[in-house]
Amino acid sequence: MSVSTSKSVHLAKRPKDRIIPGETFTLKTGEVPKESDLKDGEVLFQSLYLSLDPAMRGWLNDKRSYIPPVQIGEVMRGAAVGLVKASKSDAFPVGNYATGTVGWNEFAIMNSKQLEKVDIPHNGKITDALGVLDVGKVKAGDFVVVSGAAGATGSVVGQIAKIKGATVLGIAGNDDKVRWLRDELGFDDALNYKDQDFPKKFREATKGLIDVFFDNVGGEVLDLALAQANPHARFVICGAISQYNSSTPQGPKNYLNIIPMRIRMEGFIVFDYASQYPSAREQLARWLAEGKIQRKETIVTGGLEKAEQALLDLYQGVNTGYGMKEEKSSNMLMSISR
């Protein structure tokens, strides 16, 4: 192997509010692990693309959650798509592409049981299908509202709801994203939440009342949706990106509407559905091949040095679709881009 050094990004200081470039994380350089360092069942994994996800901000908080927080000094947690460079595992020969929670490393030794092969068009956001189908129980005739609709999860959720025969309203953060949702993804309508008349337009667009609300944002949009819910509406709480960087996050003011409207509001964690990953990925791949779903990625280049800023930009709404950090030029891009 010609490369002798490997970079990694570590948590240096827990942020109180927003991630602070140059303070929250630190970049370290070490030696690339050698093939002789591998134990039976292990591989040397080279990251090609890192996944950038809103949930990452929550992993930096030192509090009880569905997964332990990243500890000070630890490599930042994150999923990656990459290449097996050396192997002592029959399941992953050298040259195989794989994905797993590898962390923000250029190179890492991984147990092969922690990796999955990339052998179909791979969409890491299987949250999409599981959330809207299993928790939201979307069906033909439903009116579905999706917040964060131009993101990785929301954009696919809305398209799945359309496949199932629902009417879909998407909420996004700028007019270009609104046009993308309407004109390219086939949403029935979309609104820009930064429009000064957004609350009025939201109430007008939802006057028929909401059957399923798929929430990635929280805050004002969740409050507006609670006020417009049909009896027995299903609220799928996937995320609350508007609150992640606040030291004093705010809950919904209209929560009392849950009682008279008998709203079912449920949070979920995709890890709870691990047994369904293969079937969900196969279904998403089929829809992609049939042209029923489109997707889009925002690719950030420049190596691990850019990872911290790229994550910060995610919370500013810079990305459209799935946020990814390119670590190395590779033909792998062809199998995971839009």
List the helices and strands and how they pair.
Blueprint: E1 5-11, E2 25-31, E3 42-52, H1 56-59, E4 79-87, E5 97-101, E6 107-111, E7 115-117, H2 127-135, E8 143-146, H3 152-163, E9 167-172, H4 175-184, E10 189-192, H5 198-205, E11 210-215, H6 219-227, E12 229-237, E13 264-267, H7 277-289, E14 297-300, H8 307-314, E15 322-326, H9 333-336
Parallel strand pairs: 8-9, 8-11, 9-10, 11-12, 12-13, 14-15
Antiparallel strand pairs: 1-2, 3-4, 3-6, 3-15, 4-5, 5-7
* Number of β-strand runs: 15
Compute the separation of the termini in Å.
31 Å
Count up the helices. Answer: 9
Low-confidence stretches: 321-325, 329-338
Radius of gyration: 21 Å
Strand content: 25-35%
Helical/strand content category: alpha/beta
The dominant shape is: globular
Helical fraction equals: 10-25%
Could you explain how this protein is built, in words?
The chain has 338 residues and is α/β, with parallel strands linked by helices. It has nine helices and 15 strands. Strands 3, 4, 5, 6, 7, 14 and 15 form a seven-stranded mixed β-sheet that branches. α2 crosses α3. The two termini are 31 Å apart. The C terminus is likely disordered.
In short:
This protein has 338 residues and is an alpha/beta fold.
Features:
six-stranded parallel sheet; 338 residues; disordered C terminus; 23% helix; globular; single chain; alpha/beta; seven-stranded mixed sheet
